[in-house]
Amino acid sequence: MKNSPQIIETTVGPDTTNKRPGPVERKMRPLSLEVSKSQQVRIVDILALGPFMIYAGAREKLSGVERAVLIVAGIATIAYNARNYALTAAPAANTTQNS
């Protein structure tokens, strides 16, 4: 999948005379831009959100259940996003090597 475009559809506005949905505007956006944004969000989740959840779960002011939920959710966030980051980065690395 080498920078294949992604079609984004947005409704321009309703047709009030015929009470039908308005025309659809189609824009092409490179898929690599979407992957890049997703990868940036994953890095933030791995380096900031997950560790913060674990830190917040380690605080004494919370009940045992709340602490457990935050710690498990933080670990799961890091693991899930790290796995998806690696899976998404691997095909991108293969396409640049083949070019």
Low-confidence stretches: none
What is the percentage of strand-forming residues?
5-15%
Report the structural category.
alpha+beta
| Average of per-residue pLDDT values | 78
Output the radius of gyration.
21 Å
Per DSSP E runs of 2 or more residues, the count of β-strands stands at 2
Cross-sheet strand order for the largest sheet: 1-2
Instruction: Characterize the biggest β-sheet.
Output: 2 strands, antiparallel
- SSE order, as H and E? EEHH
End-to-end Cα distance, whole Å, is: 12 Å
Q: If helices are DSSP runs of H or I spanning 4 or more residues, what is the number of helices?
A: 2
- Summed up, the domain count is 1
Shape: flat
In helices, the fraction of residues equals 55-70%
Structure description:
- The protein is an alpha+beta fold and 99 residues long.
- It has one domain.
- Helix content is 63%, strand content 14%.
- The chain contains two helices and two strands.
- Strands 1-2 form a two-stranded antiparallel sheet.
- The longest helix has 35 residues, at 64-98.
- The N and C termini lie close together (12 Å).
- The mean pLDDT is 78.
At a glance:
By secondary structure, the chain is an alpha+beta fold. It has one domain (5-92). The protein has helices at residues 31-57, 64-98, and strands spanning 5-11, 24-30.
